[in-house]
Amino acid sequence: MKTIYLAGGCFWGMQKFIDQFEGVLATEVGYANGPDTPPSYEDVCHDSGHAETVRVDYDEGKLSLDTLLDMYFLVIDPLSVNRQGGDEGIQYRTGVYYTDEAQRPAIEAAFARAEQKAGAKLAVELKPLKNFFSAEEYHQKYLDKNPGGYCHIPQHMMHLDRKD
Questions:
Q1: pTM of this prediction?
Q2: Per the residue annotation, which of 4, 7, 10, 24 is the catalytic one?
Q3: 84 Cβ neighbours under 8 A, 6+ residues apart
Q4: Distance CA 82, CA 126 (A)
Q5: Cα distance between the two ends of the chain
Q6: Please, which pLDDT band fits residue 164 given cuts at 50, 70 and 90?
Q7: DSSP-derived 3-state class of residue 152
Q8: The CATH number of the domain covering residues in 2-159
Q9: b/e map of 106-126 (b: 16 or more CB within 10 Å)?
Q10: Is residue 45 annotated as part of the catalytic site, yes or no?
């Protein structure tokens, strides 16, 4: 099992999107790469400095990091700073955060592909994970619990690779 942390705007939609792929073992939404004090959702909404992030545990034998990151880049605007869809603020910044230095070459390759496609320098952070604090329970699998909830990711993108 490998783990990567993906910040792609509102974590509700990113979690729902990532959960659909064969090889994803578990996801958890939380707050990453801000101050070392665990924040509340209210703190994050008031510019605590944390990014809404999804921890993704995946089986690299079934889902490569290359493929996972290519999917991630399909549903974010990689040129937007602190904004995805209708969500705006530092907590909605985009980023790929890693804990295993061996993942960095694959991440850099995915960034290069995305940058070439975009034709401009990406606004997506590429950094080691500084910290990750689990979000409150009501945020976990939010769009499964609240199917009509807002999401900047188009609904049709939630059904690219059903596991069931």
A1: 0.96
A2: 10
A3: 8, 9, 10, 76, 77, 92, 94, 152
A4: 15
A5: 21
A6: very low
A7: coil
A8: 3.30.1060.10
A9: bbeebbeebbeeeeeebbbee
A10: no
